[in-house]
UniProtKB/TrEMBL annotation:
Gene3D superfamilies assigned to the protein according to its UniProt record, in alphabetical order: Phosphoglycerate mutase-like (3.40.50.1240)
Domain of life: Bacteria
Pfam family name, one: His_Phos_1
CDD domains cross-referenced by the UniProt entry: HP_PGM_like
Protein name as annotated: Histidine phosphatase family protein
InterPro entries according to UniProt: His_Pase_superF_clade-1, His_PPase_superfam, PG/BPGM_mutase_AS, PGM_Phosphatase
Length: 195
């Protein structure tokens, strides 16, 4: 039986607004982030979308977002936390390296500075979300995560050229919809708030 995963990026934070690198470190949601998360929750209700289970990363910006989207109980999971950027945490986004031309991400760059590689992030997020969706009573699930983590999860199931062709963008509060069947995720759609 096909199941559905809604994978959402958290709402805008202070560090997003200030263009600071935010992986393992955290900052509070802005007024815009709060309003956007509430709007996503209302959009789900308006379209009759409900969840039998809800999850978020262990980072406060994700749990705060989830609590604004739905009032149902949820579980926090380390496996869907954001990419760790080592000593670059809290620094200006201008310090980010150019994307690896083959992997279309930061590749292994942050490993030398105490962070994670793109493939490490991808492996833990895929493992965590696969374990969640394999549970028999999980049919329609919401998981609130982060931009880098969501991107690497999507890259497992969709070629980079196809991501570009479809114009998939990871704005704050963007929601990626996947179907899940027998260990495989299939990308269905990306929902974004109109800015």
């Amino acid at each position: 039986m096909t199941k559905t995963l809604y994978l959402m990026r958290h709402g805008q934070t202070l560090f997003n607004q200030l263009h600071k690198i935010q992986g393992a470190c955290d900052s509070p949601l802005t007024a815009q982030g709060i309003a956007d998360a509430k709007q996503v929750g209302q959009n789900f209700r308006d379209h009759g979308v409900t969840f039998d289970h809800a999850y978020c990363s262990t980072q406060e910006r994700a749990s705060d977002t989830l609590e604004l989207v739905t009032s149902q109980p949820y579980q926090r999971l380390k496996g869907i936390k954001e990419w760790t950027f080592g000593v670059f945490e809290g620094e200006s986004e201008r310090l980010n390296p150019q994307p690896d031309p083959v992997r279309h991400s930061h590749g292994d760059f942050f490993l030398q500075y105490g962070g994670e590689s793109d493939l490490q992030v991808q492996a833990r997020v895929v493992k965590t979300l696969s374990e969640i969706m394999a549970k028999p009573d999980h049919q329609q699930v919401l998981a609130v995560s982060h931009g880098g983590a969501c991107f690497m999860f999507l890259r497992k199931w969709l070629d980079f050229d196809e991501i570009q062709r479809r114009g998939i963008v990871f704005d704050n509060c963007a929601v990626l919809k996947f179907s899940y069947d027998q260990g495989q995720f299939t990308f269905e759609d990306c929902y974004r708030l109109t800015k």
